Amino acid sequence: MANRNNFITGITEMLILSLLEKGDSYVYQISKSIKDLSDNSLSISQNTLYSATYKLENEGYISEYSKKVGKKRTRIYYKLEPEGKQYLVSIRDNYQQVVQGVHAILCRLNQE
């Protein structure tokens, strides 16, 4: 189960960083974007997203800032840092290798 959780955490981090690469965002908006862009195939809980953003922030890959919306409400926005962009390139490469490897295995097994 731990490996599955690591895989999901890695994908969650990659999706967060990819969305932040397009522009600063807040957790609810990130959650909605993931759901919308995946045609409702992926739904990642806000709790999972908050855990991932805290981890990414602690590692220096993203930073947060407050922005006032309305008269009394403040939102926490997240911004991709240069180190986060480098990390994103690395995890995208790893993801592509895994996808290609799994695809190759399944294709060969289907040929047997």
Automatic annotation (TrEMBL):
Pfam families: PadR. It comes from the Bacteria. Residues 16-88 form the Transcription regulator PadR N-terminal domain. It comes from Anaerostipes butyraticus. This is PadR family transcriptional regulator. InterPro entries: Metal_resp_DNA-bind_regulator, Tscrpt_reg_PadR_N, WH-like_DNA-bd_sf, WH_DNA-bd_sf. The lineage of its organism: Bacteria, Bacillati, Bacillota, Clostridia, Lachnospirales.
